[in-house]
Amino acid sequence: MKIGIFVAGFFTVAQFSFWGNYIPLVFPLHLRGTGESFAANIGGRVIGTAAAWFTLTFSESRPPDPAKIAMVGAAVAGIYALIGAIATQWLPEPPSDAVAKEGR
């Protein structure tokens, strides 16, 4: 259980590791806080917490079956990860001159 908690925590925190390198290059200075806040609040709080609703809705049974809830939860998390991996293909590429400026 401790190893599972460590791995889950690692990947939960790791998904935000790109912000320090990517966000400053794609958003102009006056929009950085807005863009980062929008991404964190809509993605993390609206879309992310909907996973709990999807899990409980799709695993509904009488009486509640913990094994079914766990399997549906894993499937929902996997679908979220797959959607995220596919959606990253449409992220804008930082301009090359911004990379040179940030590298100083």
Radius of gyration: 18 Å
Instruction: Please report the distance between the alpha carbons of the first and last residues.
Output: 44 Å
Strand content: under 5%
Category by helix and strand content: mainly alpha
Poorly predicted runs of 5 or more residues = none
The pLDDT mean sits at 83
Number of beta strands = 0
Largest sheet: none
**With helices defined by DSSP (H or I, 4 residues minimum), what is the helix count?**
6
Helix content: over 70%
Order of helices and strands: HHHHHH
Q: What would the principal axes of the Cα set say about the shape?
A: elongated
How are the SSEs placed, and which strands pair?
Elements: H1 2-14, H2 19-26, H3 32-47, H4 50-58, H5 66-87, H6 96-102
Helix pairs in contact: 4-5
Descriptive account of the structure:
It is a single chain. By secondary structure, the protein is mostly helical. It is 72% helix and 0% strand. The protein contains 6 helices and no strands. The protein has helices spanning 2-14, 19-26, 32-47, 50-58, 66-87, 96-102. Helix 4 (50-58) packs across helix 5 (66-87). The longest helix has 22 residues, at 66-87. It is elongated. The model has no long low-confidence stretch (mean pLDDT 83).
